[in-house]
Each structure stands twice: as structure tokens, then as C-alpha cells.
Amino acid sequence: MKQLPGRPGGKPRLLVVDDSRVMRTAAHKMLGGQFDVVVAEHGKQGWDAIRADQSIQVVFTDLSMPELDGYGLLEKIRTCDDSGIAGLPVIVVTGAENDEAAREKALRLGATDFITKPFNSTDLLARASAHASYQRERRTLEAAVTIDPLTGLGNADYFMGRLKQDLAFAARHRHPLSVLRLEVDHFNKLFIRAGKQAADAMLMRVAEVISRLIRKEDTAARIGVAQFAVSLPSADVDGASVFANRLWRQVREAELLHEGRRLPLTVSIGVLSPSPHPGQTARTVLEEAALVLRTALQAGGDQVVTPAGVRRGLPGQPLQPASEPFAPPPISVEQALAMLASGRRDDVARHLSSLREQLAPLLEMLESKPQ
């Protein structure tokens, strides 16, 4: 599930960036009782810490440092594609050598506040507490408008914002990007037959599978009543297809019971790996992914489709080549009986031809047996 940045149940986490060991030690001693303090010796080290740790809530930074100074760190934070990082409170620690022009430059680059050396514990704690509290409130408000309350994943608005960032990064760095759009098969029928509680359980189970499979850099969201979307930065169509097939299989294998019987749960998935072009937007990419998903739904559902064709496999079987026309892989009589027992008559109906061929020798024997 998508988790809000932070350290639930623990101390708020702060980052102190200063090339002076004395200042780092003093800040740690003054703040360590109420905060989880992380330190960095220069701006580059501080930037790496910010990128790697979403739980950092406030940054204190010196201005004059080797590798990357405080101005450079400020600029990286404020221009970051990740809105959570771009909005971090940054408190600039100034000394006697920093004149008014230096403070004005830091303000132009987005400094949130200033504290002057030598600082005392009262001032430092007051600044840290005020900005950490503000950051917690901001993240809580963001969660209220960007998280789907049923599944804990992002909602459609959240996904569009993240996809826009992913597209910009992919175009700028010439990295591949893939988008999945998926839908729970026959959701309306299942809702009518089993009720809202069972339908909600199905959506939550799909969300659990998605959350378990995605990486830290991926984004997943519920974008419709029974539709989800996943953005996979740096994944080409082959990698995304492998991911999609794993997701498809694990949803199929999920145990979901209703009134003592297993509910059939399958998804159709459309995989798209867009090539960057000037007119491309998050909305157009999601619409293109919807067209690929529609192909899967029109072919009967319960499959993974790419623009090049169908890529689908039953549990334990390899993917079919994308260039081959769609034909449901055969199932055994035992699989068919199990599917019927779980109420999946429509799925079995799609395999009647192959099942008839498998049963033909037995039927002939029964017909030829003397009465």
C-alpha cells in the first residue's frame, strides 16, 4: 500500500547538513531528545540522503560547504520533480561571514527560515518543532486528497501528477517508461451477485497484490471503480510485460471467499511503453493505455495485452509470443472442474473446444461399450 512519508510511532526525522563536525555534534545534542537527527558533511551528501529517505521532514543547512554548498542544495530541493522533496522546509544556518546579500540569495532560491550561529537549544528546538509540525499537517492534508480511502493506493489525481513527473524524467534522461492499466473482470456482475462488502474485498485484494509487487520508484493508483493504473519508470515493454503477467497470475491465485465459496477474481491488463514526443501528456498516455486495455476486455478478459499483441500465460505456463494471434491456452479437465466449482462458468465456456477434444476418447469408449 502507498504509505505517507514519515516515521509513524517514532520521532520526526531531521537532516542537518554542515561541514563543521562541531556544529553537527551540537545540533545532534540539542535536537536528539525530540527528533531523529541525520547528519551530512556537505550538500551532495545531504542531497543523497534526501533522495533516499522520504521520512525526512525538515532540513537544516549551512551555506559555505565543499562538494555542493547550501545554495546548490536549496536549488536541487526546490526544482526536484518529487513534490514531497520540493516542499521540504529548509532552514538556512547563517554565520557572521554571511552578509545580507547571502540571505537574500538564499530566500530567492526558496529558503524557508534562517537561524544564526551560534544558536542556542531553545531557538533550534522552536524552529524544528514548528516546521516539523507544519510538514506533518501538510502531508496529512495531501493524503486526504490524493489517497483512495478503500485501497490505500493513490487516486486518479495523484496518479496523473506522478505520471507527469515520470514522463518528464524519462524524456529528459532518455529512459524507458511503461504504464499498466488494469480492470477487475466482470466486476458489476460480481457486485450484484455478492454485494458491496465482497466487491470491496476484491478491490482491496487486487490493491494488496499490486502493492506487494511494485518497487519504491513505481506509482500505483485506483483510477476508477474497478480500474487501477501503475507507472513503471525505467521499465521497457518486455520488463513491464513480465511484471504484468506476474500481477495477473497472483491475482488469479488469490484466495477470496464469500459465504464459504471462492469468488472468481481475475484482471485484464493493458501494457503501454510510450515513446516521448512533444505533444505527449499524462492524460494522452493514460488514454492510449485504455485502448490497449480495451483490447484485452474485448477478447474476453483475464489476460495481459501489449500494443503488439497478447502476452498471456496460465499459472505455471510460459507467456505466448506477442506476435501470435490470441487463442486461450488449453486447460485440463481437472482445471475446468475446479473452475466450475468456484463459479467460473464463463471462463470454462471459452475452453469447450479443447475440453471436448480431450474428452473425445472417453466419450467414444462410453458410446462403444455394450449395454
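That was protein one. Protein two is written in the same sequence-then-structure order:
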Amino acid sequence: MTQHAREAVGSTFDPARMQHARRQSWAALQGIRQRMRPGISEDEAKAEAAKVFAELGMERLWHPVIIRIGPNTIKTYRQPSAPDVRLGQDDIYFIDLGLVFDGHEGDVGDTFTVGHAPAQQACAQAARDLHRDVADAWHTRGLSGQALYNYADARAEAMGWRFNHAIKGHRVSDFPHAIHKGGDLGDFEHRPGEGLWILEIQISHPTEPFGAFYEDLLIHAAS
């Protein structure tokens, strides 16, 4: 079903199950969002997340739960959070989930605010808007993975945000996708196939210590 070795899948791969994993992952993210409240720490939020996963019948994590609050929202995936950060009354946070349902990998992320935080809210919305813009470019222009991230960088700058170049997207598949060594979407020289790649976007404010993150599966009928 794919043209390139980096888009290899396992014998049990099923696009419908990929969509199921995506939907369940988004449901989990919204369930965690409902449990976020001023004063909560990142570790406490992860404990709440585990309860949501159990309710949804998640099989396992394929990457650790990432919940970043306030100044930690400018951290990349592999950077540890500054300790003892708690959600303020007027604040920003993001959730990044890598969950397995029915043997297939979901990977979703979004950013939210609490209280009165207009600059942070604008940043969160900008990450969603940029993701939609880049996904539309994939759909309508057939850009390669490399071209998609070059486009994302230029659009982020035009929008007035700093683009995180360390975030380049990646493969998903039937678990575990890592055996196929698909690498980063931002290094893929071909047009990415549908339902196989996660487009990740991370931006930050040009001068203030906060940022936003959004990710979702590249599909033609995103909803």
C-alpha cells in the first residue's frame, strides 16, 4: 500500500484501526483537559491521565505522556520539564499523547489555556491554524515531508511566532512503528502517504516564555 520503504507497515496494519486509535486518542486528550485545574502539577495531571486511559480501554503507551505547563511549554519532547511548575490561574498548558488501541498507534496533541490569558490563547490557536495550513498544503500541493516543514517555518515566521525546528513529525503504524525505521517526517523526501505520518507543530512567543503544540495524523478527511 506504500511506495517507499520508510512507509512500511506490519501484516496486521488496518487503516480503519488507525482511525479508531486516532479517535480514541483525541477522546483521551479531551478527558485529561476536563481534569486540568489551576494548581495542578504536571505529575498530578499524568496521574489523572492514567484514570482516563483506563476508562477508554487503552492497551499501552507507545511514548510517555507529556503534559507541559506554563514555561515548560517551550520545552521539546526530550527536554525535561522544570520541576515544581503548577498551572496558574491565567496560564497555558499542552498535552501530547502516544497511545495504542487495538494494536494501532494514536498520537495527538493540543494546547489550552485557563483563566484570562489572551496572549497564550492566541499562541494556542496559532499552533492549530498553522497545523491546518500545513496539512492543507500537503493535501492540495503534494509537498514532500521536507517541503512541508520548510513551509511551516516560513508561515510561522510570517504569523509572528518562533518555529521549533527540533520538532519534525514522525511515522505511526500498527505497534510498534519503530521497527520500520521511518524516521522524521521533516526529513522525508517524498510526498507522505495518508494515515501514516504525524504532523507536529510547536511554536513559541518571540519574547515571552510560553509556547504551543499541536499534532495529528495526516489524512485527507481530518475531523
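DSSP finds four helices and seven strands in the chain. Keep this in mind for the problem set.
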